Each structure stands twice: as structure tokens, then as C-alpha cells.
Amino acid sequence: MSESTGTPTRAASPLAARVHGTVRIVGAGLLGSSIGHALSSRGVDVCLDDASPSQLRLAIDYGAGRRPRPDDDPSLIVVAVPPDVTADVIERELLQHPDAVVTDVASVKLEPLRTLQGRGIDLTHYIGSHPLAGRERGGAISARADIFVGRPWVVCRDEQTSAADLALVEGLALELGATPVEMTPEDHDRAVALVSHVPQLIASLLAGRFVDAPDGSLRLAGQGVRDTTRIAASAPELWVQILGANAEPVVDVLDALAADLSSVAAALRDPEAPGSRRAVADTIRRGNDGVERLPGKHGQNRRFEQVVVMVDDTPGQLGRLFGELGELEVNVEDLRLEHSPGAQFGLAEISVVPSALRRAVDGLEARGWKIASTTND
């Protein structure tokens, strides 16, 4: 496979910036239906197929595409099925549609590739890919055309991949508002183990501690713990397959994390011992440094400042806040809302570029908004 760059691919040609012909989507769940909605809204002919007749009917009823026809001649096939059957479906589609380009959107890339290679399948027209997008709830009913906008879409090409085939898969990503990123399957699987698969386990483990917690403790939960455990609502059946298919890279990260946890626990067992406080401080500081490296809006590694505004829990207040920020020429880079139980107001944490912080604070206060805190407090 090609060497990983970890950066967006070259600018696409006009041909690569659009999807042409019929697109066949196998799997009418969240990702398959979302791709169908996005392409159908752009006038692309989308035919859907799914092993579940009821899932297929639901996706079609919602407008994600049409039923397959015997005379379908797709130019592109997107396999969007669970990981444990991904290789089987890719093999079937390559054999049934030898002139089509086949891609899949499974969250693990190396295992299906090795399975297909082991079977001796001609993979000339196969390109593995993976959009880094999704929701906590799956199924056609949760599908949305905009979930790929601004998200990375990994494309795993090799030296056998033709320019035309690559353009079609990259064009799919670009048409849906995603950013194509070329990586090898090995690099992809190591990356998602760190930024997707282990975070899922950590969120689930932490949320699992709530099961036997006293009700009084859970009433104290704020936005921080909700943010930390949001993805714990994911489907166990799917994640058993994903984690099993990417076990080795996941275990590597878990082992390193377990060592970090042991070090912090040892320091906290005797907080007054020499070096204990430094160990805890270094752990928090390293987390600060890691968060700073996460790409923000438009994929930029850019630091923003935060201003927290108290917003009355009445209709129209949030819209008024955005409107007045617009009048102040302050762009909202990110937003997080928090409601305290029983309170008649919410807290809107707004991220802005550092140069706009003072203008936002002074302007909002002059318009009667109460500022709860800022980054500099």
C-alpha cells in the first residue's frame, strides 16, 4: 500500500469533484443511508440494497435511494455493512460488477483487505475507505446527509489503483463535503485505535461505573461528565465486531493507558510523598498539551479562547445571542451548551479567536448579557 501522509490529498480535478453514473450502496444503515441521502439530494442515481428487507424499505421511504433493478450498471459501489461481513460483500460485489469501482466504509481496513488477498480476489477496482463520521444511534432512521461535512475521509490506495478509480472514490468524499486523506490500512487502523476505538472503551467503562452509583451522586453530573461519556450510548453489537477486528492496535493503546493510570493511582495513594504532586500535575499538563494538538474548525490546529455567557431558558435567547455576536463581527468557532438541573438558565460556552475575545466580552456586556467566565479568568 502507499505510504501514509496523514494530510489531505492533492486538490481534485473537476472530474474527481463529482460522482457520475449510478451509485450502488450495499447496507442501508446509518452510513449507507446517509451517503444515499447526500448523493440523492445532488441528483445522483442511488440504488440501495440490504440483507434486511425492513431496513431497506425504511431507508427508501426516507428518500435515501431506490430499489435495485436487474439492468443496473453502477459506476461506483459503496459497501456499508457490519465489519464481520465486509470482506464477503466486497468479494460478491467485485464478482457481480467487474467494471465498477468498489469501496467500503468499514472502520477497520486491514482485516478485510488481508481476508480478500488470502482468497485470491482480484482487487484492481477495490479501494478501501473510511469516513470519520457517525452518530451514537445507528440505522436508516438516524441517517443525515450532512454528517460527512468537514470530516476526514480516509482513502487506502495502492500502486495498482488507477487515477480514474481513485478520482471516483475521492470525488465521493468531496461531493459529500468531506476531506480525502490518503493512508495505508496499517496506519489507518493504528490511528483509529487511538482516536476512536479506545475512546469508545474508556467512555463505556466510565459510564459503567454509574450503574451502581447512588442517585444523589448522579444528580451532581454536569456537562463535563456528559461530554466524556456521550459515546457510551453506542451499539454493543457493532463495537464487539470493530474492536475484535482491530484488537492488536487497541490493546497497544490500552496497555500504555493502563500504565499511565497505575502511575497516577500510585501517586494519589500517598499525595504527600516526594514527587506525587508533580506526577499528578504532569499528567494534567500532558493532557493540556494533547488537547492543543487536536484539530479544530476546518481541521486547523488553532487555539481558541472561550467566553461563557448566561442565557435565559426562554425561546429566542440563543438566536439573539448569535445575532448580537454577528453585529459585533465575532465569529463563533465552536459552541457548547450546558443546563444545570433545576436552573432557569443555561451556559453557552463560545469559542472565538483570541483577537476577538475582548470585543465579544465588552460588546455582550454592553448589550446586557451576563458573562459567567472567560479563558482569562
From TrEMBL:
Q: Where is the Prephenate/arogenate dehydrogenase domain?
A: 21-298
Q: Which residues form the ACT domain?
A: 306-377
State the EC number(s).
Answer: 1.3.1.12
Q: Which domain of life is it from?
A: Bacteria
Q: Which UniProt keywords apply?
A: Amino-acid biosynthesis, Aromatic amino acid biosynthesis, NAD, Oxidoreductase, Tyrosine biosynthesis
Q: Which InterPro entries match?
A: 6-PGluconate_DH-like_C_sf, ACT-like_dom_sf, ACT_dom, NAD(P)-bd_dom_sf, PDH_C, PDH_N, Preph/Arog_dehydrog, Prephen_DH
Q: Which residues belong to the signal peptide in this entry?
A: none
Pathway, per Swiss-Prot/TrEMBL?
Answer: Amino-acid biosynthesis; L-tyrosine biosynthesis; (4-hydroxyphenyl)pyruvate from prephenate (NAD(+) route): step 1/1
Q: Which family does it belong to?
A: Belongs to the prephenate/arogenate dehydrogenase family.
Protein name listed in UniProt: Prephenate dehydrogenase
Q: Which organism is it from?
A: Microbacterium terregens
